[in-house]
Each structure stands twice: as C-alpha cells, then as structure tokens.
Amino acid sequence: MTQLQLDDTHDPSATSWVESANGADTDFPLANLPFGIFRHDVEERPRIGIAIGDHVLDCLAATRAGFFGDVDPAVRDALQSWTLNPLMALGRADARAVRRVAHRLLSAGTAEGSRARSLSADLLASNTAIGMRVPAEIGDYSDFYASVNHATNVGSMFRPHHPLLPNYKWMPIGYHGRASSIVASGTPVRRPRGQSVASPDGPPSVGPSARMDYELEVGAFVARGNRRGDVIPLSVAEDHLFGLCLVNDWSARDLQQWEYQPLGPFLSKSFATTVSPWVVTLDALEPFRTPAFVRPPGDPAPLPYLDDATDRARGGFGITLEVWLRTAAMRAAGQPAERLSRGDFGSMYWTLAQMLTHHASAGCNLQSGDLIASGTVSGPDRGSRGCLLELAWRGQSPVTLSTGESRVFLHDGDEITLRGWCEREGFRRIGFGDCSGEVLPALA
C-alpha cells in the first residue's frame, strides 16, 4: 500500500492570499484543497473547482491562464472537463500534481500566488454565486455495513441472542445501491411510498413511509478501476481510491423491514442518497491516518487477501462526524440546528481499502467515479449512533429536542445535515463541508 510522504502542502504555517482560508474554523484551508463540480449562476456549463476558504478556484480558468502548464497534457484536458471522472481515471499521482500546483498558486508569498491574486476576479468564484453538483458521473454505487457497533445494535433489535450473522467478521458485507438517485447536498428528498406491514407476516398496505431515517456514512470515489475478471490486491487498493466525501443513505425503515428478506434492501434505499459536494483527497487526509480497528480477542483474523501490514498500521482515517437536525418549527422560529450525535470514523470494523479489495475479489470491474460507502458510522455509546433507528432504539427511546419536540423517525420538513472534519496537533484542521437535505411530504 502506497505511503505518501508529507510535503509542503501539509505545512500548517502556510497561508493563502484568500483570507477566508486562513481562519481556524474553515473546512477548506490551504492544506485541504478538495475537488468538486460547480456551476456559475449565470452559466450552464459545469466546471471542476477546488475549494479554498469561502471561494472556489475555477480550474478551467486557471488552466486557460497557464497555471497548469507543467503538468501532463492529459491532466490539463481533464481539468477542463465538466466532471471529475477523467481526472479520477488518470490516478492519484496526477491528482497529486494538480494539488501541488493549486497549493502554489493559492499560497501567499509565491510567484504563482502573486500572479494568481492579480487575476483573482477571473480565477475565483464566491460560494454565494455558484451551485454545486454531484462530483462525478457515478456509474455504480455500493453500500457496505462496516460499523460493528451499528451492525450489533441493529441486529440485537431483531435477533437479540445472535445480533451478528456468522459472516460479518469474515468479510465486508454490502449491497449494490442505486446510482441514479444520488443527489447533491441541498437537494430536497421526497418521502417515499411503498409496502409496509403492521405485523411481521403481513398483509401489507401501501402508503407513505412512516419510519424515514438518515444514515451517517463516509463515501469513497474510485480513481483507476480494474478490468472485469481482475482483482485489486489490498497492498495497492488505496492507489484506486481518489478521495472521500460524506454520504447520507436515506432509509425507509418500515419498507425495509418488509422487503429485505431474502435479498436485502431495495425500494427502502433507492429513493435518494445525498453526497457532500467536495471530494477530500487521500493526500490531504495523510496526516490524519489511524490504525485499522483492533479486533478483540476471539475475533477471527482477516483472510489473507483482506490482510496487509500497512493497512493494519494505517488503514483508518481519524474523521469526526456529526449529525444535525433542524425541524420546520426551528426554522419558523429562527432557531439553529441541533446536534443529534457525534461519532468517529476510526471505529469501523473494516477499512475502505478492505471494502474495495473485497468488492473486486470476485472479478467485479470497478470504474472511475464509482462510489462505495461505509454504511452507518456508529460508536459504542448512544451519543455516537449514526441513525435514528439506533438513537431512538426502534422507537422505544424518543429523542427529545430543546424545543420540546421529539423524534423516533423523521418528520416532513426536517432538515438533516452531516458534518465531518479531521484535527491533529501540528496540522491544520480540514473538513468536508455540509451534506444536507430536507424531507418533503410524499406525493399523494
């Protein structure tokens, strides 16, 4: 597994001529530089952008101004696309080259930075004057179940004596999701309709879901793919990962309970999945690597194809994750959102590299821009549970808000916002930006 050496892009003392990037609380300092797709309010054509403070560097404009003249021509072509797929397909090394050039041109005190500042009106766009898109054309989306705390909690609700199925600790469990219903942060989400039952044996009725939920997850975009029939060894798996984002895999729990046997989620998960607009590269996340989850005594060791010394030592990411809720009543009263939970991505039983390797192990051809998601991120205590199903424990322990409202599942008008960031002494804090969506009433 490739181990990146820290370089000047990780220097916490480096400052940007974009003043908003120097604030201690920004998600997007000079040390981050995530990629996304944006569109000017006055223009139809989407463009690749790099977040810096409360602005976006327009990669198309920067390329035409000659700032990326030293990179490979294929990289310059990719930077002028309307999606990140061509850049993802080139691989992490080329994306790293773009990151280094962007760091120089956005830095204070460099020749490139001085020239870029003089052209700032052409190179920068304010966050208030653009719209963000889904970062890539996602051909396929797979969702995993990698949090042992989440799997144990949910399993204990339905199988108190055997919460984890026998296969859980032997391989990353996942299912193929629906790529066509992935939406960008800020897109409203319509409450789905479907079959549900009052008793386990039925009969079902059809109507709006009464148990709509969110799921706090981390997603990873595939960089270079693999040919059908080939595998991706764990030792090189991260070379095939471009970067990470936040994911809300909205779920209709009542529909899910009726349909999931014997083949798993279907309509209960396919109506919407929200992703954050910025893709934080693995290079930016390098200072925040953590060891993989330490398995307790008695748990089986991973099979050889899912085991690698480097992955054990640094396969995790120290990402703090939060869920915030703002109800319709809060908005009407001008009140801010309220935090429901805070978790740690380092608690996952399986690493993202293991998920990718297992996904390809039967010969599945992953493609650039494909999205894999971690599954709900939950910690060992109630305050770190990543969905309402767990927080309210299947409706038995309602979540009480400061307004006096309570929730066991989501109401129409509820807005859910996911946030994530990394912090470590000696480095700049970096974040992912918001991943949000408001629940709209079901169609009649």
Could you give a short description of this structure?
The protein is an alpha+beta fold. The model has no long low-confidence stretch (mean pLDDT 96).
List the helices and strands and how they pair.
Elements: E1 35-40, E2 47-52, E3 55-58, H1 59-64, H2 73-79, H3 85-90, H4 92-106, H5 111-118, H6 120-123, E4 124-126, E5 130-132, E6 141-144, H7 148-158, E7 174-176, E8 182-184, E9 189-190, E10 193-197, E11 204-208, E12 212-213, E13 216-222, E14 241-248, E15 251-252, H8 253-259, E16 273-275, E17 280-281, E18 289-290, H9 309-314, E19 316-317, E20 320-326, H10 328-332, E21 338-344, H11 352-360, E22 371-373, H12 388-391, E23 399-400, E24 406-407, E25 415-422, E26 430-431, E27 435-440
Parallel strand pairs: 6-22, 8-16, 9-27
Antiparallel strand pairs: 1-2, 1-5, 2-3, 3-4, 6-7, 10-11, 12-15, 13-14, 13-22, 14-16, 14-17, 18-19, 20-21, 20-25, 23-24, 25-26, 25-27
What does this structure look like?
The protein has 444 residues and is an alpha+beta fold. The strands form seven sheets. Strands 6, 7, 8, 13, 14, 16, 17 and 22 form an eight-stranded mixed β-sheet that branches. Strands 9, 20, 21, 25, 26 and 27 form a six-stranded mixed β-sheet that branches. The chain has two domains: 8-132, Fumarylacetoacetase, N-terminal domain (SH3 type barrels); 141-440, Fumarylacetoacetase-like, C-terminal domain (Fumarylacetoacetate hydrolase, domain 2). The protein has helices at residues 59-64, 73-79, 85-90, 92-106, 111-118, 120-123, 148-158, 253-259, 309-314, 328-332, 352-360, 388-391, and strands spanning 35-40, 47-52, 55-58, 124-126, 130-132, 141-144, 174-176, 182-184, 189-190, 193-197, 204-208, 212-213, 216-222, 241-248, 251-252, 273-275, 280-281, 289-290, 316-317, 320-326, 338-344, 371-373, 399-400, 406-407, 415-422, 430-431, 435-440. The chain is globular and about 70 Å long. It is 20% helix and 25% strand. A hairpin with a 2-residue loop joins strand 2 and strand 3.
